[in-house]
Amino acid sequence: MSFEELEHTADIRMRVKASTLEGLFSDAARALMTVLYGTIDPGNICRHIEMDADDPVSLLHGFLSELLYISDVEELVISGAEVRITGNHLSADLLGEPFSREKHTSGREVKGISYSDLTIVREHDSYILEVIFDV
After folding, report:
1. Side-chain half-sphere of 32: how many Cα atoms within 13 Å?
2. Which residues pair with 133 in a beta bridge?
3. Phi, psi of 45 (to 5 degrees)
4. Residues 7-46: tens digit of each pLDDT
5. Does the pTM of the predicted model rise above 0.90?
6. What are the φ and ψ backbone dihedral angles of 103, each rounded to 5 degrees?
7. Domains, the chain, with CATH or none
8. Which of 16, 61, 81, 114 is a Cys-bridge partner for 132, taking CB atoms 3.0 to 4.6 Å apart?
9. Most distant CA atoms of the chain, gap in Å
10. Cβ count near 59 (within 10 Å)
């Protein structure tokens, strides 16, 4: 996996790396779900989402916030996201599995995605994201 948890005093700070912006968003989704649920396996439930934002950082914030909402309201553990980005428009096909109390209890509750220190940078041939999940 291309993400790691970094030190943070109160919340969960993650660093995600990918070779494409779409891959960065997809890996950020997996990082969020791993924090929430611990173990995630490929699922067979499909869900499609689309959204627009003013810039990539706002688009990422909206995307992760939408995943958090879908996961909570629909009790769907998202195991994968095929993301397509054109300009400031995102289209994603999500794969997931139903939440199971027996299987998905090793994670931590995430209340929201913080704009604080939310950055996407391009470094050589990689995109790097740092994001804080409010717990």
Report:
1. 35
2. 12, 113
3. -90, 130
4. 877 899 999 999 999 999 999 999 999 999 987 888 899 9
5. yes
6. -100, -35
7. 3-134 (3.55.10.10)
8. 114
9. 42
10. 22
